[in-house]
C-alpha cells in the first residue's frame, strides 16, 4: 500500500514536470497546435512505455497495470452500446468484448439489408501492450459501434514477450472460426450479418488484421462468415531497411524508432530480423500468397508517423497484387491519433470507414447478398 502511494506521488511529480516541459517547448517532431491535454498524455505515455520495458526484453506488467486503465462491460446500453465479454478458450485466456449498438437492439429485423455489418477489431500496442478492455480501446470500439453503426468484436489476444509470433495471429484466426461456428449469447444473427465481416485494427492490430485476412482468404472454408473488408489504421509493418520517414521521425512524440525495434525484437522468433514475413509483408521472405478472396483494404496514414513509408508501400503492394485498396492520409496526425476524441481526425476516420463499409456492402455493383 505504501508503495502504491509512493508511486502515485512520483507520478504526480512527473506530471507537474511534464506540464512544465510541454508548455515551454513543443518537440520538433510533433504536429503543431496539439491541445495541451493531448501533448501531456503523449509525453506521459512515452515515459510509461519506456519505463516498463526492461532491457532484458521483459515488461514490468505490475507497473504498467497502474497506467493501463480498464473498462468493465456494461449490459445496460451505455453510450448507445451494450457490451459483454465472451470467452473463446480459457486455457490461453482468449476472449473478446462484444459491442452491440442500440440500433441493432431496437430494429430487430429479418430483412438482410437492415442487418448490421460485423467488425472484428484488433487493438494496438506493439503486440505487447493493452487489452480489449483497456479504456482507450473500449472507448474507440464503442464509438465505432454506435456511429457506423456495426456490431464490433474486440479480440483479447495474447501478448509478447510472454507469447511471441505467431500466437497473436493464431488467436485472431481462432476468434473468426469461433464466431463462424458457435452460437453466442447476445450475438443475434437476426441483427448482424456475418457474410459482411470486416477485419480492423490499429498499429500492431492493423498488422494482425492483415495476417488474419491472408489466412482467411487462403486456408480456410468458413460456414457462413465472409471477410469483405480490411481496415488498417496506421498498421505496424517494417523491415531491415531504414525508410526516409523512419529516419526523419525517429524520435517521434508518440512512437520512436527505438520502440518499434524493441517491439519487433520481442515479437519475432529468435534468430529472425525485421525482414521476417510478419513485418515486411512485401519483402523477400514473404511467401504469403493472397487468396482470391483477399478483402478490399483501406489504409490510414498519418504525416507525423514514422511508420508512414511502410504503410504506403503496403498500400502500393496491394495495388500491384491487383487488390482493391484505398489510401487515406491525414498530414497532421501522429501515431495513435484515434485515441484522442478531442482531435478532428478521429471523426474523419469514422466517416471514412462508414463510406468504405457502404461502398462494399450497399453499392449497386458490390457484393450481392
Ligand atoms: C528481467 O529483469 C527483471 C527485473 O530485473 C527480472 O525480474 C526478470 O526475471 C528478468 N527476466 C529475464 C528473462 O531475464
UniProtKB/TrEMBL annotation:
<comment type="similarity">
    <text>Belongs to the 'GDXG' lipolytic enzyme family.</text>
</comment>
<dbReference type="Pfam" id="PF07859">
    <property type="entry name" value="Abhydrolase_3"/>
</dbReference>
<dbReference type="InterPro" id="IPR050466">
    <property type="entry name" value="Carboxylest/Gibb_receptor"/>
</dbReference>
<dbReference type="GO" id="GO:0009860">
    <property type="term" value="P:pollen tube growth"/>
</dbReference>
<feature type="domain" description="Alpha/beta hydrolase fold-3">
    <location>
        <begin position="119"/>
        <end position="338"/>
    </location>
</feature>
<dbReference type="InterPro" id="IPR029058">
    <property type="entry name" value="AB_hydrolase_fold"/>
</dbReference>
<protein>
    <recommendedName>
        <fullName>Alpha/beta hydrolase fold-3 domain-containing protein</fullName>
    </recommendedName>
</protein>
<dbReference type="InterPro" id="IPR013094">
    <property type="entry name" value="AB_hydrolase_3"/>
</dbReference>
<keyword id="KW-0732">Signal</keyword>
<feature type="signal peptide">
    <location>
        <begin position="1"/>
        <end position="24"/>
    </location>
</feature>
<dbReference type="GO" id="GO:0052689">
    <property type="term" value="F:carboxylic ester hydrolase activity"/>
</dbReference>
Amino acid at each position: 500500500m505504501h508503495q502504491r502511494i509512493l508511486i502515485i506521488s512520483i507520478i504526480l511529480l512527473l506530471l507537474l514536470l511534464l506540464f512544465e516541459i510541454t508548455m515551454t517547448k513543443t518537440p520538433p517532431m510533433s504536429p503543431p497546435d496539439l491541445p495541451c491535454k493531448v501533448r501531456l498524455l503523449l509525453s506521459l505515455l512515452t515515459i510509461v512505455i519506456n519505463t516498463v520495458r526492461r532491457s532484458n526484453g521483459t515488461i514490468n506488467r505490475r507497473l504498467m497495470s497502474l497506467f493501463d486503465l480498464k473498462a468493465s462491460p456494461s449490459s445496460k446500453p451505455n453510450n448507445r452500446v451494450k457490451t459483454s465479454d465472451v470467452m473463446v478458450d480459457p486455457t490461453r485466456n482468449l476472449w473478446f468484448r462484444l459491442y452491440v449498438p442500440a440500433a441493432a437492439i431496437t430494429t430487430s429485423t429479418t430483412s438482410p439489408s437492415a442487418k448490421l455489418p460485423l467488425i472484428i477489431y484488433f487493438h494496438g500496442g506493439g503486440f505487447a501492450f493493452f487489452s480489449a478492455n483497456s479504456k482507450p480501446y473500449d472507448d474507440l470500439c464503442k464509438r465505432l459501434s454506435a456511429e457506423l453503426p456495426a456490431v464490433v468484436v474486440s479480440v483479447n489476444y495474447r501478448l509478447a514477450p510472454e507469447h511471441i509470433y505467431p500466437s497473436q495471429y493464431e488467436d485472431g484466426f481462432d476468434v473468426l472460426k469461433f464466431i463462424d461456428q458457435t452460437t453466442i449469447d447476445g450475438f443475434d444473427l437476426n441483427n448482424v450479418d456475418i457474410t459482411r465481416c470486416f477485419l480492423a485494427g490499429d498499429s500492431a492490430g492493423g498488422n494482425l488484421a492483415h495476417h488474419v485476412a491472408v489466412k482467411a482468404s487462403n486456408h480456410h472454408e468458413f460456414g457462413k462468415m465472409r471477410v469483405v473488408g480490411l481496415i488498417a489504421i496506421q498498421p505496424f509493418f517494417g523491415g531491415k531497411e531504414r525508410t526516409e520517414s523512419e529516419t526523419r521521425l525517429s524520435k517521434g512524440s508518440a512512437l520512436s524508432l527505438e520502440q518499434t525495434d524493441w517491439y519487433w525484437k520481442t515479437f519475432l522468433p529468435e534468430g529472425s530480423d525485421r525482414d521476417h514475413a510478419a513485418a515486411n509483408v512485401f519483402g523477400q521472405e514473404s511467401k504469403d500468397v493472397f487468396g482470391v478472396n483477399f478483402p478490399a483494404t483501406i489504409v490510414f496514414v498519418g504525416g507525423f508517423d514514422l511508420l508512414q513509408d511502410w504503410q504506403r508501400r503496403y498500400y502500393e503492394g496491394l495495388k500491384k497484387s491487383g487488390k482493391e485498396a484505398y489510401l487515406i492520409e491525414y498530414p497532421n496526425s501522429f501515431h495513435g491519433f484515434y485515441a484522442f476524441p478531442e482531435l478532428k481526425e478521429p471523426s474523419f476516420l469514422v466517416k471514412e470507414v462508414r463510406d468504405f463499409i457502404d461502398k462494399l456492402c450497399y453499392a449497386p455493383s458490390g457484393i450481392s447478398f
